[in-house]
Amino acid sequence: MSAWKETAEGVFTRRFEPVDVTVTAVLGGAGVLVVDTRCSVQEGEELRAELARLTPLPVRWVVNTHVHFDHMWGNAAFDAPALEPPAQFWGHRRMPDYDPDGPEFHDLRDRLLRDGPEWKPKLDALVIRKPDHLVSASHALDLGGRVIELLHPGRGHTDHDLVLWLPDAELLIGGDLVEQSGPVAYGSDSFPLDWPATLAALAALTTEGTTYVPGHGDPSGRGFLTESQAFVAAVADQIRALHADGVPVADAVAAGSWPIENAAHFGDAVTRGYAQLSGELG
Length: 282
Ligand SMILES: [Zn+2]
Known about the structure:
By secondary structure, the chain is an alpha/beta fold. It contains eight helices and 13 strands.
């Protein structure tokens, strides 16, 4: 576990295992806003304790950048009865539900249980607390003398990525739209063809001095956002070219030329891109 790093005045970031998720705490006059809460209620409780060591201010807001487990399964640690008064939970309006009987949830459970025995108690104690303060396009949140903007810049890592723009700190918290500790992750709910325009919209918000906080890894500068935009644009172009050449979806991953050597990384990107080009995703 790393230590809190003061990335801008009153903005602390910290990387947490497992899965090296980056959590941000924004201090305002009226309390703390936490961005993403780690992978389990137990980890959320550990996070709450670490925040209490960082500042006497109460946690009043939790923002989830998207629905993936490593970004929101710690939420219940910030809800009553664990935290009184409970925090407000913010997310994008399209954030989907976890269906505890659905195949996707079962697959995820099985994958985590295969990863190690430590997941069993975490999954047994899981309480999923979804946001109920929902944002469509944008919303300004006043933390007490510090206004931050919650924005949905478009589809990319998911269809409900929510980013935070802190104008007073020139700092952007982008969730998994950009990752620093590895290449961006294309999952079965990603929109690889829309992703480049979404990062272009983010880049348009920023200036030379902007700090960018990724969903995984260390904060970096605007140049990193530009590099990531080139990466997702190359992937989108490749998917369009393969589709236009009539390469069948089953062959496209092997046939493509990708910005990193590990072609398997682009399996879901191809599936999703092809589905969108065939009009299946809307
Ligand atoms: Zn994610």
